[in-house]
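In response to a reviewer's request, we include the raw inputs and outputs for one of the modeled complexes. The two entities were modeled together in a single run.
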Amino acid sequence: MTSVTTDPAQDPRMSGASKPPSLFDGGLQGFLRRKEVRAVLYQILAVTVLFAAFAWMGNNVVINLKALGKDFSYEFLGQASNYDINQRPIEYDSQSTHGRAMLIGIINTGLVAFVGIIFASVIGLLVAIARLSPNWLLSRLAYAFTEFVRNVPVLLHILLVYGVVITVLPNQREGEEPFTLFDRVILSNRGLFIPKPEMHQGAGYLFIAFLAACALAYLWRRYAKVRQEQEGKTLPVLLPSLGLIILLPFLMWLTSPDSLTFSIPEQGRFNVKHGLRLLPEFFALTLALAIYTSAFIAEVIRAGILSVSKGQKEAAGALGFSRLYALRLIILPQALRVAIPPITNQYLNLTKNSSLAIAIGYQDIVGTIGGITLNQTGREMECMILVLLLYLSFSLFISFLMNIYNRSIALVER
Amino acid sequence: MADTTAHKDEEQAPITERIPAVGWVWKNLFSTPLNTVLTLFSLWLIWKVGFSFVDWAFLKGVLFADSRVACREISPHGACWGIISERFDIFVYGRYPHEHRWRVNLSFILLIVALAPVLWETMPFRKRGLLFTVAYPFIAGWLLAGGLFGLDPVNTRNFSGFMLTLVIGVTGISLSLPIGVALALARRSSMPVLRIIAVVFIEFIRGVPLITLLFIASVLLAYFLPPGTDFDLIIRVLIMVTLFASAYMAEVIRGGFQALPRGQYEAAEALGLSYWKSLQKIYLPQVLRISIPGIVNSFIGLYKDTTLVIIIGLLDPLGIGRSLLSDAKWAGLAAEMYLFVALFYFISCFAMSRYSLYLERKLEREQAAEQN
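The model returned the following structure tokens for the whole complex.
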């Protein structure tokens, strides 16, 4: 930028009119000073440095592995794991492979994330509404809740809730009676035992019935919308859809009850047999994560609701909407539009924080493949790469779903 | 007669209008049936949780005692705060050698000195104070680790307790800020290669939990370095925490760049300023100012995340507390210990979040004033 040339032809930036500018106007110095040339040079430099760093690290890895007499292979995934997992949603024993152990870890992480996200959203919404309530006491309570929960580390929440859960649930070893529900569900400090669905021949038809019910519910929703636009009449959508989705597979099941049976937990002398066992660690972790995340979600939703202009609320009132309807049909849809991106972040945080399961011994991805498998096989590199990839895929998957949802509620502008 | 009617009118005015406090209570707590139910529910909750807590913690609690047994002798069903009052120094200094504790104290005091010019905007000699702030992490590092200029070296394995939280927090925030700015610039750059590198780095770090990065620090990092290089766990953890925090910081700063009015960019270009000049004189001062609340928030996140180091065996206050519980003298006092540590984090994080809120409000006022 130093050249103060009077002749435009000398200046590379101004010579456009007479002849096409060449990169080499102004000799080597001018060449190096041009923006696009510099950009290319910087990028070449960056790539070189990056490659050099990776090559150096890769080389170190090769040397280090050789010195330890290790190679890089994923064969161990097919070998017997020789360890037990305390919560197994699918068939597993110590003779199963490391790969299967990892699969259980993935399911366990997914379970915590899924249940945790649902609870966090519900609690968060309730707290946000409580916080905005005209009732002074309730709104102060909600405020105290969010501030306390947000400002205490999540690990501490997990340990605290775990301690509470373990003390509150009846201790079977000390002869306390477990809670039961219709003799089908048993709850004690050994965990929650629920009937476990077992699929047999013909279960595919149930699945098809479920899909068909979903499709029908979707069609019904569209039809209701069309009717509403034409006649202004509101047809019920939620209940018929739910009914359809439950009823259709149920009818299908009645026709062939053998296709899906339930293994029902039985209180034995020392142990509960059969059924699906969910550990107290699972509740503690899910509850702690849900509470922690709900405080953040509550703040986000509150900000979203406050961002909806007052006129919208007044207009809803003028049109004769009740407060509940105004909230559901006018305020929340607009508030969510603002709130969805930060809520997505909170869902991602919850999923990532579920890795703290290791602090209370719940075996998720970090506990299985990144924990016992890693220690038994000594394959740190392979296991950690898998763990990172799995969490990345979880993150990407949740972002993907939330992006679809976000697009579906985004403002469609003309 | 006229007198009595006036008197009657006054009497007939609802009590809610005659006594303001009653009016407030009526309007805010009992205006509708639903409101009344909610109030009663809240009162019940406060009674149920609040009272039993106060009873346990304060009315029946024991503040000073030298073991759990001694506590129980004084009050069998109350809290035993002896675990905190007796071992408070352990929570602060951890296993830092006794004779060198003055160094930790000095670095706490210097931290206050270093923070003063940041928090107090009209401080005399603020510019020079800020120079000290920039130098503080290095001074504190030297003070705590020693080994140079005549200070005895202290093995970093002894870094624990609150001072460890502080070491990780201060390092994380002071290093992640410049790296975060660089990453944000790279992500906004028009050079595709730099942009891609920044995006991949930021999204990768943000996509994985901190705990996996800490695991990498403890089991894997040695593989990537020449054989025989051995540097201690604290440094490895600091590297990972810094990288983690910088990715989040980069997004905060990028948000700041996006919030900057377009006119600022056009003005910088119109003035013919070079990239670095405009960055230094126009963009960064404004972007950093806009981003301060976000920066403080991500610092709160980092500060809370420091507790995760207990999973790879370092002892922060939570880790210290857990190790105290394995001492037979204090076993069984988990509730007291967890509550104390929770209170400790709550106070520091709440203070920071209030500060960030104050800054946000101030920024809004300033922007409103500029527009007028």
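As requested, we also summarize the result in words. Residues 201-263 of chain A form one domain. Confidence is low (pLDDT under 50) at residues 1-17 of chain A.
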